[in-house]
Design goal:
It comes from Scoparia dulcis (Sweet broom). The protein has 481 residues and is α+β, with helices and mostly antiparallel strands. It contains 16 helices and 9 strands. The chain has a 4-stranded mixed beta sheet with strand order 1-2-7-4. A 3-stranded antiparallel beta sheet has the order 3-9-8. Bound molecules: protoporphyrin IX containing FE (HEM).
Length: 481
């Protein structure tokens, strides 16, 4: 064909690279900044399709909706693979965790189980009592601290961990106490840039740069999950109010579910439970935390949100999850929070199987792809007053987060789009409504809304650097059930 000339084989632009480390120095030099910011600044300088060499790993970074659209529309299958990272390989059962799995039959099968059996609307609704009970417990604790400062951030994270754990492995047992801290470490480790991943064939780095720690964490995790699994299999016919994820997954163990699905091994089930925990906890709690922070920062918005919830629920006297769908303003707040504080800022990395052309540039096979959803979410070319928190911007807008508006991709897009959107939103919407319905909130230590420090923590998930220190004032009594 006509485009094999050397000019069409041009790589996308990027800064000058150094021997051996390529562009890694750009990250080392700004080690106090999160990668999403460094990559956004590079895009401003070199353009929306950026080429970087991270150690030995060729990488492109996309920061425009047109190029994101081109990739997700025309190269979706080609980019449906994930790079093999140390954490996925060592900790997550040799990349059989869904989020890290290569694009394969195994991925297809386990994604089907996840979307159809675990994260369907019906299943998500079936966990309503768990969410209600755990958040009611939280509200009771908050009410018991009325008038004194509390660390709301910590409590929101703990409550979310409890909910996801109960939904995954059932009623609280002693194992929860072991499970949560190990899973927390796993979530931290799997979100970060790890230097060892940029020299995949370097045995020295692998040996000394993380593999031992990953193995140690893996053994701990495996021991706990194995115990949970065998306990459950031993007590299979115990009385149960709700099926949890483990019950569902065990139906696929050893092909009990029949020919429509491949069977899951014990390791597969353990990997799936890890996936869910990893994908669901921090993303949901950090969104809730940012939403509360933004409302505390702008008391007018807080009042508007509280008015909506209180007008809506005052007849019943409590927040009922089955009708949260009608909370228009709460929905706008969540949309805006996901725009300005995109938790999975760079999505999860992908890698292409075959060489291809994107935006007129040559992309060699096995190039790692980051889509900077966080940067697009605050790009002034797409958003008016892009850095301001304005929920009303979504009022008369058809923009949604289901992967078809490429400047707004908090859940990603295409084949690897987050399968947990419905579940994730349910875990945010209802708790937010409940916190706003029952309590008024005052910043602790005499901090004024203007003085609130909204700095982001330098981590892969965009948490706030400061915790929410607030004083609760009970405004609506808690249900006594
Ligand atoms: C506010 C909440 C959440 C946000 C912002 C979020 C965000 C994301 C993002 C950005 C991706 C990468 C998509 C891509 O590569 O295009 C992803 C993937 C994924 N998420 Fe979520 N997520 C959330 C909640 C959840 C929940 C509740 C679950 C499960 C229980 C979940 C499970 C997963 C899984 C398994 C993947 C990998 C999918 C695959 O590789 O095929 N997420 N999520």
């Amino acid at each position: 064909s006509k485009n094999k000339s050397s000019s069409t084989m041009k790589l996308p632009p990027g800064p000058r690279k150094l021997p051996l480390i390529g562009h890694l120095h750009l990250f080392l030099l700004r080690s106090s900044d999160p990668a999403r910011r460094i990559l956004r600044d590079l895009a401003l300088e070199y353009g929306p399709l950026l080429y970087l060499q991270l150690g030995n790993v060729p990488t492109i970074v996309v920061t425009s909706r047109e190029i994101a659209k081109e990739i997700f529309k025309t190269q979706d299958v080609n980019f449906a693979n994930r790079p093999s990272l140390l954490i996925g390989e060592v900790m997550l059962y040799n990349n059989t965790d869904l989020a890290f799995a290569p694009y394969s039959d195994y991925w297809r099968q386990s994604r089907k189980i996840l979307t159809q059996e675990l994260l369907s609307m019906k299943r998500v609704q079936s966990f309503q009592p768990v969410r209600e009970e755990e958040f009611l417990n939280l509200c009771r604790w908050i009410a018991s601290n009325e008038g004194s400062p509390i660390d709301l951030t910590d409590r929101l994270f703990m409550t979310m961990y409890d909910i996801i754990t109960r939904i995954s492995i059932g009623k609280k047992t002693g194992l929860h106490a072991d499970f949560i801290p190990v899973m927390k470490q796993l979530t931290d480790a799997s979100m970060g840039f790890q230097i060892v991943d940029y020299y995949p064939s370097n045995w020295f780095l692998r040996k000394f740069g993380g593999i031992r720690n990953a193995q140690r964490l893996h053994h701990k995790l495996d021991e706990i999950l194995e115990k949970i699994l065998t306990d459950r299999q031993a007590n299979n016919n115990a009385e149960k109010m709700h099926e949890d994820f483990l019950d569902v997954l065990l139906k696929f163990h050893g092909n009990a579910a029949g020919a429509e699905y491949t069977s899951l091994t014990s390791n597969n089930i353990k990997a799936m439970l890890s996936t869910i925990f990893n994908g669901a906890t921090d993303t949901s709690s950090v969104t809730l935390d940012w939403a509360m922070a933004e409302l505390l920062k702008q008391p007018k918005l807080m009042r508007k949100a509280q008015d909506e919830v209180r007008t809506f629920y005052d007849k019943r006297g409590y927040v009922d999850e089955s009708i949260t769908n009608e909370l228009t303003y709460i929905k706008l707040i969540i949309k805006e929070t996901l725009r300005l504080h995109t938790p999975g800022s760079l999505l999860l990395p992908r890698v292409n199987k075959e060489a291809c052309m994107i935006a007129g540039y040559h992309i060699p096979a096995n190039t790692q792809l980051f889509v900077n959803a966080w940067a697009m979410g605050r790009d002034p070319n797409y958003w008016k007053d892009a850095e301001k928190f304005i929920p009303e911007r979504f009022l008369d807008s058809s923009l949604d987060f289901r992967g078809n508006n490429y400047e707004y991709l908090p859940f990603g897009s295409g084949k690897r789009i987050c399968p947990g959107i419905t579940f994730g939103i349910a875990n945010i919407e209802f708790p937010l409504a409940m916190l706003l319905y029952h309590f008024d909130w005052v910043l602790a230590n005499g901090v004024t809304p203007e003085e609130m420090d909204m700095t982001e923590h330098n981590g892969a998930v965009s948490t706030r650097a400061q915790h929410l220190d607030v004083i609760p004032v009970l405004k609506r009594p808690l249900p006594s059930k």
